[in-house]
Amino acid sequence: MAKVGSRRVGRSCRGRGQRRPTTWEISDSDTEGPVGAGADSEAAVRARDPAEQRRAEAEALRLLRPKQALRRLAVRVDPAILEDAGADILMEALGSLGCEYHIEPQRPARSLRWSRVKPEPCPCSVPPEVWAAGEQELLRLLEPEEFLQGVFQLTQICGPACSVPWISPESPTCLHLAVIGLDAYLWSHQPNAQEMQQPESPGVARAEVAVGWPEVEEALVLLQLWANLDVLLVASWQELSQHVCAFTKALAQRPFKQFQESGTFSFCTAGRWTAGERVTKDGTGLRGAWWRQIRQFNRVSPAVADAVVTAFPSPRLLQQAYLACSTDQERLALLADLPVKVDEGARPRRVGPDLSRRICLFLTSTNPDLLLDLSS
């Protein structure tokens, strides 16, 4: 079939720096040929060069941005959809969206499928499942008569979900259904004693007589419970086009969100540290992290944080001291009399009861809605 749509094509994403010379390495898996060896050497160079690794991660992040990902997203439309007069609204909406769309035969018929074009070369810092996000999404358009036949089977025959005509074991994992004009169809096919006509198909006759909005709502619930299948009921092609465009934009944002969720947090001990106090696996740096945590309280100076950390070098030691207290008042005032180091000639200072109470509640309270700072 001919290709229809915007002329934007996926372009290869190349590194911004100069090409580095090939580095030979000895590996147990040399069966991939020159391409695999080049990728391994590139990964080895980036591992040795932190600046190059940061540039590669920034380039990968740029490719995952929603605007860039939308350009690499393609919507494949079945030719049977174009037989409807209102399909021009859908094609115009896809053309103005900024992504590619192709007219290709799809299985099942009257369906739309989304696919993603991977950049070449593919950044090594992005997991493969991120690029594959959304490739199993499929939207199938049903005529009102066809949908009502399936509703009749679900509500009257009470068969399993696989007996519905549009559901099969070969269906994709993320199948969606859409029906245009179901409300108008039900109103126009209400039983009328004066206009009793015999339809060609007996199944359609039973569906027209026995299926109404109560049965449709019941079928929607059964489809959601049995097959995790959602059905979109729209009144016009304009509403369908708006839903398809919004769904396409959501798919373009999914890789970026998954890449952010897969990254490590800066405060994890096994993560990559970009700021803050570095903590190694042997515990080095925990005292500094505890000092920074005390500093996060309102109105806490470095000297006050030093006084708390000097008396209790870790949160665990302070928790043990709280457990040794016999009353709540003793716990709340445990840190109040700790001396704070001041300059020569200055008045002596203490931690004070307010900060002592806030730190105690922070480490001992189980109420997530508790307000620590009463003055805020």
Automatic annotation (TrEMBL):
<feature type="compositionally biased region" description="Basic and acidic residues">
    <location>
        <begin position="43"/>
        <end position="52"/>
    </location>
</feature>
<dbReference type="GO" id="GO:0003677">
    <property type="term" value="F:DNA binding"/>
</dbReference>
<keyword id="KW-0234">DNA repair</keyword>
<dbReference type="InterPro" id="IPR033310">
    <property type="entry name" value="Mms4/EME1/EME2"/>
</dbReference>
<keyword id="KW-0227">DNA damage</keyword>
<keyword id="KW-0233">DNA recombination</keyword>
<dbReference type="Pfam" id="PF21292">
    <property type="entry name" value="EME1-MUS81_C"/>
</dbReference>
<dbReference type="GO" id="GO:0031297">
    <property type="term" value="P:replication fork processing"/>
</dbReference>
<keyword id="KW-0540">Nuclease</keyword>
<dbReference type="GO" id="GO:0048476">
    <property type="term" value="C:Holliday junction resolvase complex"/>
</dbReference>
<keyword id="KW-0255">Endonuclease</keyword>
<dbReference type="InterPro" id="IPR042530">
    <property type="entry name" value="EME1/EME2_C"/>
</dbReference>
<dbReference type="GO" id="GO:0031573">
    <property type="term" value="P:mitotic intra-S DNA damage checkpoint signaling"/>
</dbReference>
<feature type="domain" description="ERCC4">
    <location>
        <begin position="74"/>
        <end position="323"/>
    </location>
</feature>
<comment type="subunit">
    <text>Part of the heterodimeric MUS81-EME2 complex; the complex forms specifically during the DNA replication phase of the cell cycle.</text>
</comment>
<dbReference type="GO" id="GO:0008821">
    <property type="term" value="F:crossover junction DNA endonuclease activity"/>
</dbReference>
<dbReference type="GO" id="GO:0005634">
    <property type="term" value="C:nucleus"/>
</dbReference>
<feature type="compositionally biased region" description="Basic residues">
    <location>
        <begin position="1"/>
        <end position="19"/>
    </location>
</feature>
<protein>
    <recommendedName>
        <fullName>Structure-specific endonuclease subunit EME2</fullName>
    </recommendedName>
</protein>
<keyword id="KW-0539">Nucleus</keyword>
<keyword id="KW-0378">Hydrolase</keyword>
<comment type="similarity">
    <text>Belongs to the EME1/MMS4 family.</text>
</comment>
<feature type="region of interest" description="Disordered">
    <location>
        <begin position="1"/>
        <end position="52"/>
    </location>
</feature>
<dbReference type="InterPro" id="IPR006166">
    <property type="entry name" value="ERCC4_domain"/>
</dbReference>
<dbReference type="GO" id="GO:0000712">
    <property type="term" value="P:resolution of meiotic recombination intermediates"/>
</dbReference>
<dbReference type="GO" id="GO:0006302">
    <property type="term" value="P:double-strand break repair"/>
</dbReference>
